[in-house]
Automatic annotation (TrEMBL):
The keyword Metal-binding applies. Transmembrane segments: none annotated. It comes from the Bacteria. Keywords: Metal-binding. Residues 3-43 form the HMA domain. GO terms for molecular function: metal ion binding. This is Copper chaperone. The keyword Metal-binding applies.
Length: 67
């Protein structure tokens, strides 16, 4: 699944977003693309809404994308 994280601007942000996802779902594989503010999450156990909610709770504005 993919998300656009509107307020992710730098490597520090990318590390923070990755940490939130890994805390919510330690089995998830996270790939960050700062150039388009997207993250791809594979191999995890949680669904998209649960991950989006975890990101939102931590202050990240994540919107789901197809793919």
């Amino acid at each position: 699944m993919r998300f656009i994280v509107e307020n992710m601007h730098c490597e520090g942000c990318a590390k923070g977003v990755t940490a939130v996802v890994k805390q919510a779902d330690p089995s998830a594989q996270v790939e960050v693309r700062l150039e388009d503010k997207s993250i791809s999450i594979n191999g995890g156990r949680l669904g998209g809404e649960a991950l989006r909610s975890a990101l939102y709770t931590a202050g990240w504005k994540a919107a789901g994308m197809a793919g």
